[in-house]
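Key result, reporting period 2: structure in, sequence out.
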């Protein structure tokens, strides 16, 4: 769903809300109907088969959405508020039938297992526990094995077959083993009632409040914890899968705890009071535990092997999440014992529980992730959730129908006071001399502006640098290079904005329209406030339109054609960004180009291993017949290169380069129309055809087999541990040498229109890169030899300066 709705937080929230709304409707409707089922296990089997069949509707539904989304965008004039509402409606349409049937499964099974209250409580809690533990195993298998090995389609259809087989198994069990087909009604359990002599169970109002609150608070804290963990993790699909697995496992153990409490407890309100109070304390202190274990929000296991990294993620998740989740995970199933269900259908009663719990689960993530997180920040949001658990405990205390020992009142009060008084941890890990100028916290990420000396840096989620003032020239070149190549770049699209420096560079060209799409909404005000002086009037130029949206979603909904499309440096292992390196995305970008258009995808080589680079390059080449590689800088440790895709037979024009460069550089020679070298070859790395043999047989990345999303996190961590290597320094020089050797500039058809005096700069560029490497390594003797070779090719190119740091020297 994220691929078609976009990875923007609001789109995810719409899908999540639609899912839980379906559960709520199913719990209510099928719970009411279950009293009429004489064979509830048989009906349950039919429901599981129904889930499998209605899940199949998702495929044509998504195809319909992709076909007509552009028309919907045009109809709403691209207004995000209307689009969000329509996406929510479409989510409900796609998900309502299967999720409603899912929501009804627990009530229908309750109708089957619960002939009396004590029986429902004993069996219902263990059923809840086993189901949730099964969910944990499912998340583990899907997140770590099935999707990565078999892809989305095979995993999806395999799951549908499993669901259908569960349905057929239930029908078979009903025919073979079930003899009592009478309708169940929970009757008064006299044996259990005698044990409750002084305390009443909770009433229906209290039941609704607790069921609703348990869903609201549990999903709220899970949402916020995910944002908390994002500050120290690799943030790959594996990291978030690990957190989900631990959360579901802990809920399952909470169900086991509830089952034990049902058996031994005589006073349900005491149990709820204790659980809610302990929930308040454990949730409220979770940031302190997290901060302590991560040593002040330090990056987790940066140099560990892949297996050791996963162990570290699971360990941290267990130490932070397990105890509080077990505690509040026991509350919902314990309501089966604590509530006044006498002479009522068990299915109807459980359906009511599912209804109110699912409504709370719908509201919780939206309230916490979109309102509280924006308004008061992550640590205060966690405190509010913890305090609400404490207030629920106080509410239960004051509903006792007898005088209760006041010491029980101290437990929630002490918990609330403790949560309020604990000091909040930092939100950003700072080095000595660093200072936070401003921070924005929201559901789509934490954006911070950090000042370090004279450098101003924009970060996402603590460690991911989106750009800084020190790299202004490199960021500008990422905008200039694609536009220098195009004969007449009038309309330009930038997918990803960051600091805005790259998009701003395009305004130095003769452009008529510039569209900038940025997923993280708070990046836009951050760039406007702190980087405006370097963005070439980007935020005030009437030619510019800045849109907060997902890049793929924007392309899907736009019928506009562009001369140049530029893809930003997307962190390859970050969850969701792998979709921006797929065949489907590249095809959509190609479809959005005018005839003769250019698509440039910048790659952070310092974040890619050779295997990662090969996967992305092979995928790109499968869409664009003509692919060339260009550099934005001469750095050996943080190199940025672009894969530039064009039509088959495209050739670099000498006249176009001279004309476009004159827009940027005014010299006396150019003013007098004298012949000067534009030296564009310095930034040309080679033709991807030079790597044909290396790329042959490479598995490409697509929406089904998400190779980038599932392989690059592993390769990256292996590079951190030393068993793989990023494309930096010597590895980078090897790549550049391979390009130059396999297809020299004079044999490269793409460069066939350049005069010989310009072709030489391709060789000069490689030698200059090597020269800078040797200077950096302190190898001055060999550097001097390379310098002599450069002077033979271009005597006036590089004067004898000591320790040049870049091409600008």
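The corresponding designed sequence is given below.
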């Amino acid at each position: 769903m994220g691929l078609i709705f976009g990875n923007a937080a609001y789109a995810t929230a719409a899908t999540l809300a639609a899912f839980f709304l379906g559960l709520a409707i199913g719990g209510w409707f099928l719970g009411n109907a279950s009293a009429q089922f004489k064979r509830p296990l048989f009906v349950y089997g039919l429901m599981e088969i129904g889930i499998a069949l209605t899940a199949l509707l998702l495929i044509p539904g998504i195809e319909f959405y992709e076909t007509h989304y552009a028309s919907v965008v045009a109809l709403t004039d691209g207004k995000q508020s209307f689009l969000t509402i329509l996406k929510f409606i479409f989510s409900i349409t796609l998900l309502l039938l299967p999720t409603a049937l899912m929501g009804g499964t627990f009530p229908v099974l309750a109708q089957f297992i619960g002939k009396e209250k004590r029986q429902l409580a004993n069996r219902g809690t263990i059923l809840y526990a086993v189901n949730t533990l099964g969910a944990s195993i499912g998340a583990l298998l899907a997140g770590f094995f099935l999707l990565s090995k078999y892809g989305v389609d095979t995993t999806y259809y395999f799951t549908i077959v499993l669901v259908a087989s569960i349905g057929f198994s239930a029908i078979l069990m009903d025919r073979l083993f079930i003899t009592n087909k009478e309708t169940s009604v929970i009757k008064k359990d006299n044996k259990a009632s005698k044990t409750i002599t002084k305390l009443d169970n909770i009433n229906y109002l209290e039941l609704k409040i607790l069921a609703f609150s348990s869903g609201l608070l549990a999903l709220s804290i899970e949402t916020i914890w995910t944002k908390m963990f994002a500050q120290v993790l690799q943030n790959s699909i594996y990291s978030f899968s690990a957190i989900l697995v631990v959360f579901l496992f802990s809920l399952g153990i909470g169900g086991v705890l509830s089952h034990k409490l049902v058996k031994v407890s005589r006073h349900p309100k005491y149990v709820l009071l204790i659980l809610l109070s302990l929930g308040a304390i454990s949730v409220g202190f979770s940031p302190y535990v997290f901060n302590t274990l991560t040593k002040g929000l330090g990056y987790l296991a940066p140099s560990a092997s892949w297996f050791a990294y996963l162990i570290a993620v699971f360990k941290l998740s267990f130490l932070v999440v397990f105890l509080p989740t077990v505690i509040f995970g026991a509350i919902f199933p314990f309501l089966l014992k604590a509530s006044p269900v006498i002479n009522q259908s068990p299915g109807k009663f459980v359906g009511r529980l599912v209804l109110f719990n699912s409504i709370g689960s719908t509201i919780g993530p939206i309230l916490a992730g979109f309102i509280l997180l924006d308004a008061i920040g992550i640590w205060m949001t966690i405190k509010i959730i913890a305090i609400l658990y404490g207030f629920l405990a106080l509410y239960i205390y004051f509903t006792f129908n007898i005088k209760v020992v006041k010491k029980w009142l101290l437990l929630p009060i002490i918990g609330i006071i403790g949560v309020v008084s604990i000091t909040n941890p930092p939100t950003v890990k700072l080095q000595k001399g660093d200072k936070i100028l401003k921070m924005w916290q929201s559901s789509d990420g934490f954006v911070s502006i950090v000042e370090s000396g004279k450098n101003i840096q924009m970060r996402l989620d603590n460690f991911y640098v989106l750009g800084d003032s020190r790299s202004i020239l490199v960021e500008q070149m990422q905008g200039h290079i694609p536009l220098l190549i195009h004969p007449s770049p009038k309309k330009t699209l930038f997918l990803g904005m960051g600091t805005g420096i790259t998009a701003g560079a395009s305004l130095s060209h003769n452009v008529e329209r510039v569209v900038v799409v940025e997923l993280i909404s708070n990046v836009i005000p951050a760039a406007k406030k702190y980087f405006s002086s370097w963005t070439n009037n980007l935020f005030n130029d009437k030619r510019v339109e800045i849109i907060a949206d997902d890049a793929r979603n924007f392309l899907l909904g736009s019928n506009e054609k562009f001369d140049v499309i530029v893809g930003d440096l997307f962190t390859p292992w970050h969850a969701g960004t792998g979709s921006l390196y797929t065949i489907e995305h590249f095809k959509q970008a190609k479809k959005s180009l005018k005839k003769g258009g250019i698509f440039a995808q910048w790659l952070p080589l310092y974040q890619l291993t050779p295997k990662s680079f090969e996967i992305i390059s092979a995928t790109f080449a499968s869409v664009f017949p003509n692919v060339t590689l260009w550099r934005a800088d001469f750095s050996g440790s943080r190199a940025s290169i672009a894969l530039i895709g064009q039509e088959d037979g495209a050739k670099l024009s000498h006249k176009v380069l001279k004309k476009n460069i004159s827009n940027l550089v005014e010299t006396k020679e150019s003013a007098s129309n004298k012949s000067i070298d534009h030296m564009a070859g310095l930034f040309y790395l080679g033709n991807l055809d030079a790597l044909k043999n290396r790329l042959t047989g490479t598995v490409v990345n697509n929406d089904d087999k998400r190779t980038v999303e599932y392989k690059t996190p592993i390769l990256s961590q292996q590079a951190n541990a030393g068993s793989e290597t990023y494309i930096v320094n010597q590895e980078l020089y090897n790549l550049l040498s391979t390009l130059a050797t396999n297809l020299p500039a004079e044999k490269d058809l793409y460069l066939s229109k350049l005069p010989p005096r310009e072709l030489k700069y391709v060789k000069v560029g490689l030698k200059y890169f090597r020269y800078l490497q040797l200077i950096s390594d302190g190898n001055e003797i060999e550097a001097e030899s390379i310098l002599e070779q450069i002077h033979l090719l271009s005597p006036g190119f590089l004067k004898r300066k000591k320790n040049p740091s870049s091409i600008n020297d």
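The longest helix spans residues 117-177. Residues 464-755 form a domain with the Rossmann fold fold (CATH 3.40.50.150). This case is discussed further under Risks and Mitigation.
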